[in-house]
């Protein structure tokens, strides 16, 4: 029996490693003419590692104590940075303490009660508001790390900065090729949308060949970036992995989530899922959609 073109394209996309959730999505995917990519976990592998542990001199903490405190707060989080912090503590054979009152703010960080202290872990630019010497010291540490392309993560105890962690992630091996293929297919320059700091964002963008970079974005800022394109008549393909990407995936013409390390919310919200986390499967799926549309028409 011959399958209808859209169904056979869906089956084909599935064989390439892209799970398309409906025939409507399969049909629409080929219309996209602008691409917006998330950085952490999408262009990068999303398995970052802690590369620096810097307690502030006045904190009274050594490296292990700072790491344990951060890991305690991060333990319940599914964010790649949280997993990196907990893994680093376990690698040093440190015991991660129990956590109470955990809450997370997508694009900002986490907070929890650890050993009787309120501990916050997250983006320095979002958490550092004070003017004290600890804030100035922490900001200087963060800036040095970000200058090296790291994601700097601030650790606060009861509202006071106590240290900074440096986090590094690897680019996906096929990221550059996928960006080039999507640029050619859509005839427009892709954008990078990230909650990470501008320096780390610029480093990754340069490596993969993206010149339109928007950094330090909250989840709603990613939506705004997508909507701005939509109002000019663009059909935006958003590719992301995190809870912080879910609103943008929903606002996109077509949203695609990274399947292996992607958050449950991103997987549910997206129109399609990249099963094996290979970005190069996306341009293949766009081509399948276009071919099927020609047969349908
Ligand atoms: P991206 O858009 O690149 O995927 P996110 O929006 O998930 O990044 O995170 C943006 C920034 O917020 C991170 O670079 C980090 O500084 C901070 N952040 C978010 N979640 C956490 C967390 N669980 N622990 C520490 N920092 C976090
Ligand atoms: Mg991400």
From TrEMBL:
It comes from the Bacteria. It is found in: Cell membrane. The keyword Cell membrane applies. Keywords: ATP-binding, Cell membrane, Magnesium, Membrane, Metal-binding, Nucleotide-binding, Translocase, Transmembrane, Transmembrane helix. One of its GO terms (cellular component) is plasma membrane. One of its GO terms (molecular function) is ATP binding. Belongs to the cation transport ATPase (P-type) (TC 3.A.3) family. Type IB subfamily. This is Heavy metal translocating P-type ATPase. The chain holds residues 305 to 601 of 660 of the full protein.
């Amino acid at each position: 029996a011959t399958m209808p073109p859209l169904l056979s394209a869906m089956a084909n996309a599935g064989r390439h490693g892209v799970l398309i959730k409906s025939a409507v999505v399969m049909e629409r995917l080929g219309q996209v003419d602008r691409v917006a990519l998330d950085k952490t976990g999408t262009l990068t592998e999303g398995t970052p590692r802690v590369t620096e542990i810097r307690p502030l001199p006045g904190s009274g903490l050594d490296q292990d104590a700072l790491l344990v405190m951060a890991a305690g707060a991060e333990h319940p989080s599914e964010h790649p940075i949280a997993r990196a912090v907990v893994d680093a503590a376990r690698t040093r054979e440190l015991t991660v303490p129990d956590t109470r009152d955990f809450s997370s703010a997508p694009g900002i960080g986490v907070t929890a009660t650890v050993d009787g202290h309120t501990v916050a872990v997250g983006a320095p630019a979002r958490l550092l508001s004070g003017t004290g010497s600890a804030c100035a010291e922490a900001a200087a540490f963060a800036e040095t790390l970000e200058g090296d392309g790291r994601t700097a993560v601030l650790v606060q105890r009861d509202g006071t900065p106590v240290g900074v962690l440096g986090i590094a992630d690897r680019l996906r091996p096929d990221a550059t090729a996928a960006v080039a293929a999507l640029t050619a297919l859509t005839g427009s320059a892709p954008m990078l949308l990230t909650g990470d700091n501008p320096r780390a964002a610029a480093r990754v963008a340069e490596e993969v060949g993206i010149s339109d970079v928007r950094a330090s974005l909250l989840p709603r800022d990613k939506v705004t970036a997508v909507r701005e394109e939509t109002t000019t008549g663009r059909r935006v393909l958003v590719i992301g992995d995190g809870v912080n990407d879910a609103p943008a995936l929903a606002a996109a013409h077509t949203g695609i989530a990274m399947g292996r390390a992607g958050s449950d919310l991103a997987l549910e919200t997206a129109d399609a899922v990249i099963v094996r986390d290979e970005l190069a499967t996306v341009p293949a799926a766009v081509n399948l959609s276009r071919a099927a549309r020609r047969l349908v028409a």
